[in-house]
Write a structure and sequence with these properties.
By secondary structure, this protein is an alpha/beta fold. Helices cover 38% and strands 23% of the residues. The strands form two sheets. It has a five-stranded parallel sheet with strand order 2-1-3-4-5, sandwiched between helices. The chain has a two-stranded antiparallel ribbon with strand order 6-7. A hairpin with a 3-residue loop joins strand 6 and strand 7. The structure holds flavin mononucleotide. Flavin mononucleotide binds next to loops.
């Protein structure tokens, strides 16, 4: 059974991201083909990257890095819930991604983004980042519009088609997480 983390990439007081991540988790819980867990970056207050060596060397030195690596290492795939800040993902999510390397490799990822234009630019940036981390990004991006998927810009009220898109995206992340399992096993054996 693949284990998928839903990573909540916004830590602001009053963040909309919490409603979005809870909506994702509510829908994901109905699935019987994977296990889902919410990983809220508020619970992992990583400082600005403070590792002396690049993460791809795999020589993590700080306790908070080792803890974060153990968290990410437990999962087979990821759903990133990202706001759009200045046409990209949030700094806190990028920092958390940058901290580790091997723990992301050969895993699948999908994006639920939100913003004035559905957070599409944040989602596209995350795809570029995923490529460098040897992650497989799935086609479907759930892009929630602040104008039409939130009541008064504050209360999440996603259109029915968004629920369908989320279901499709979750299925793609699960399938690709499973498909990449042989590559993860090769790496573990090496
Ligand atoms: C620093 C910052 C930059 C933002 N830049 C964008 C942007 O480039 N495009 C956009 O659509 N919304 C932008 N917004 C609006 C956010 O999409 C909106 O505030 C959203 O609620 C942020 O997610 P959060 O509440 O989970 O933090 C920005 C908000 C902040 C705080």
């Amino acid at each position: 059974m693949p284990r998928i983390a839903v990573i909540l990439g916004s830590t602001r007081p009053g963040r909309l991201g919490e409603q979005v991540a809870f909506w994702v988790m509510d829908q994901a819980r109905h699935r019987t083909d994977a296990e889902f867990e919410l990983v809220d970056l508020v619970d992992y207050p990583l400082p600005h990257l403070d590792e002396p060596l690049p993460p791809n060397m795999g020589a993590y030195q700080n306790a908070h890095t080792k803890e974060w690596a153990a968290v990410i290492g437990r999962f087979d795939g990821f759903v990133f819930v990202t706001p759009e800040y200045n046409h990209s993902t949030s700094g806190v999510l990028k920092n958390a991604i940058d901290y580790v390397y091997a723990e992301w490799n050969n895993k699948a990822m999908g994006v639920v983004s939100y913003g004035a234009a559905g957070g599409a630019r944040a989602a596209e940036h995350l795809r570029l980042i995923a490529g460098e981390l040897q992650m497989a990004d799935v086609r479907t991006n759930v892009a929630l519009s602040l104008f039409t998927d939130f009541k008064d810009f504050t209360e999440l009220a996603p259109g029915g088609y968004q629920t369908q898109a989320l279901e499709t995206m979750l299925g793609q992340v699960i399938a690709w997480s499973q498909a990449l399992a042989p590559l993860r096993r090769v790496r573990q054996a090496a």
